[in-house]
Amino acid sequence: QVQLVESGGGLVQAGDSLRLSCAASGRTFSQYVMGWFRQAPGKEREFVTAISRSGSNTYYQDSVKGRFTISRDNAKNTVYLQMNRLKPEDTAVYYCAASTSTVVRRLRYEYDYWGQGTQVTVSS
Q1: Which of 20, 108, 113, 122 has a CB 3.0–4.6 Å from the CB of 98, allowing a cystine?
Q2: Could you read off the pLDDT of 71-82 as tens digits, one per residue?
């Protein structure tokens, strides 16, 4: 089992940047595919991005391509989400998730462990 704790959310203006972190504890972090999801008020939780166990493969939702970057540091048991050129529509609670899959996944049910979420609010 793995425990996930997100941090780094906050209130920013459109065009600003934020970096989210997700610290993992428990079983070996490098054994997990890691993903970020987000949930805006009144909407379903949606996939944002994911990264393979080694960090060599990544996958992004179209709306964040070119603006968001996922990375991981297996030595620090941490996955990051660098968010640049933020837009008001990026406002949501952002969740870190871990999957025991061997390949990058983008569906909610394919993830086994979830953090508690961190709020990101982008004002116009």
Answers
A1: 113
A2: 999 999 999 999
